Amino acid sequence: MPVEITNLTQRPVLMRLNSGTSLHLSPGARSSKIVDAEVSNNEKVKKLQERHIIAMDASPARVQKAPARKRAGKKAPARKRGTQPAG
Questions:
Q1: How many Cβ atoms are within 10 Å of 52's Cβ, its own excluded?
Q2: Phi, psi of 68 (to 5 degrees)
Q3: Where are the chain's structural domains?
Q4: Rounded Cα gap, residues 29 and 53, in angstroms
Q5: Structure pTM?
Q6: Dist. CA 5–CA 85, nearest whole Å
């Protein structure tokens, strides 16, 4: 389940995720969705959360369906073999 991390302080926050990438959050900023495996069993994230420096919000993954495509009622006229299109 993806999570979003919010910086609750008035100072920038820097933390290292489990994959080795760093997450920089400006004061009051919220991260994009992060895979749960990046923050699970991470002592730094746990410590920041206990000190109320960050807040983690677990949000269910939302899948949006593509809009239905309208079908045209008529087909384009077939070209005869060996002719070039006009234009």
A1: 9
A2: -70, 140
A3: 3-58
A4: 12
A5: 0.65
A6: 57
